[in-house]
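Course assignment 3, question 2. Fill in each field.
Student: A.L.
Task: Predict the tertiary structure for the chain below.
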Amino acid sequence: QVQLVESGGGLVQAGGSLRLSCAASGRTFSREAMGWFRQAPGKEREFVAAISWGGSTYYANSVKGRFTISRDNAKNTMYLQMNSLKPEDTAVYYCALSTKVAAPSARTSPYDYWGQGTQVTVSS
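Answer field:
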């Protein structure tokens, strides 16, 4: 059974930075795409960024130029470096893994495993 565990969330002032990590375990990983999504109170879950096994990336327009997604396949870990944070970035951030597609995707349907989420709060 695949497990995804996020870490690195917290409280930060606007303009600050945080680095999220997502550690995957439970299977031999090969070509899985991974992604980050977020959900603010009262809103639907939204796409943040995604990355293929080979490192191709895809970002939501709202975070492009501020966030950087990366992965270390040897460690089965994905990262999200978040810079220039804004209050509107406040949300629970979820990592996701797809065994169905290799290319990064902004849709939730290709992802069949999800982490428990980590809270990111940006104060103004």
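Instructor remarks: DSSP finds no helices and eleven strands in the chain. The radius of gyration is 13 Å.
Grade: pending
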